[in-house]
Amino acid sequence: MFFLLVIITFAITVFAASPDVSSTLSNILANTNNSSRYTYPTDLTRGIVPKGLHSHNDYWRDIPFYSALSVGAVSVEADVWLYNSTLYIGHEPSALTTARTFESLYINPILDTLQRQNPSSPFVTTPTKKYASPRPPLPQSQYSTNTDTLFTPYSGVFDTASTQTLYLWVDVKTSGSTTWPYVVRALEPLRRGGWLSSTNGSGITYNPVTVIGTGNTPLNLVQPITSRDYFYDGPIPTLNSTFGNITSLVSPICSTSFSVNFGSVNGTSLNSTQLALLRDQVRVAKGKGIGTRYWDLPAWPVSTRNGVWRQLKSEGVDLINVDDLEAGAGFSDMADYW
């Protein structure tokens, strides 16, 4: 309903303001009679182009998940805290409320979106969206060749790219060993519907949602399990040393702190030393078939932020960490056509 109201408002504003469009045509374009001819079952995300953006601290949005979905971000992040057997969402304990849970802000909205994109229909008797690919498409990604196989009988959350997986990062804030089993249990509605990407130890079957545990998620509750439908956020800087045994079956995408790795950025681009480090880290990750994401990017000045976004993208970083969704998607004057 929210998206329909936005579309109607836009149509009325644009076409009513044009002297060349009659009021009758304006009404048709705005679909003021709510004709079913101008809608279709999977149109919730029609026209939204998926982008290699990660909605950092997504739960801070006015409407978590949906805000990211509306601009085409293919990756969202939820901070979870375990209290009395319930997973609550927030950046810190003082921000938690009983209404804001992992189930209410993420599991249920994602499930609802997927059900809208995969409606019961007399025109669909068997799943038809099946294809093989090294990986689900990420805009502008340049993954190294690997043996991962994708077979998805379902449409994902994006109507314009039904095979694009949604990356759901679960940042565990409380004790990992205690909290992670509750996260796995909370995924059951998505698991039961067959929506989760999974591995059997020899490859990854990508489905509409790919869950990656980060924060206090314990590696020993992920890596030793051969068959599972969740993954681990490995550390980019040590993929060729301390965490050299991490593979893409454990961590399809890894991350690390930009500020800790590179320090401050003067101007609008990395210096030669910083750029050499970035290229080396991306090279190592891609050699393992692993994608990359850097968080804690410069936020100000805006010219520095945009310059870093642009450089990370051009150097093959797969998910660009954004706090300003509209700017990241190019919908804001502050984006400066980054």
How would you characterize this protein structure?
- Helices cover 29% and strands 16% of the residues.
- Helix 1 (2-16) runs antiparallel to helix 2.
- It has 10 helices and 11 strands.
- Strands 1, 2, 3, 4, 7, 8, 9, 10 and 11 form a 9-stranded mixed β-sheet that branches.
- The chain is of the alpha/beta class and 338 residues long.
- The chain is globular.
- Residues 1-17, 128-134 and 139-151 have low confidence and may be disordered.
Measured by DSSP, the beta-strand proportion falls in 15-25%
Question: What multimeric state do the chains show?
Answer: single chain
State Rg.
21 Å
**Structural class of the helices, strands and pairings?**
alpha/beta
Largest sheet: 9 strands, mixed
- Helicity level: 25-40%
| Total helical elements | 10
The rounded distance between the terminal residues' Cα atoms is 32 Å
From the spread of the alpha carbons, the general shape counts as: globular
Average pLDDT metric = 87
Instruction: Identify low-pLDDT runs.
Output: 1-17, 128-134, 139-151
SSE order, one letter for each helix or strand: HHEHEEHEHHEEEEEHHEHEH
- Per DSSP E runs of 2 or more residues, the count of β-strands stands at 11
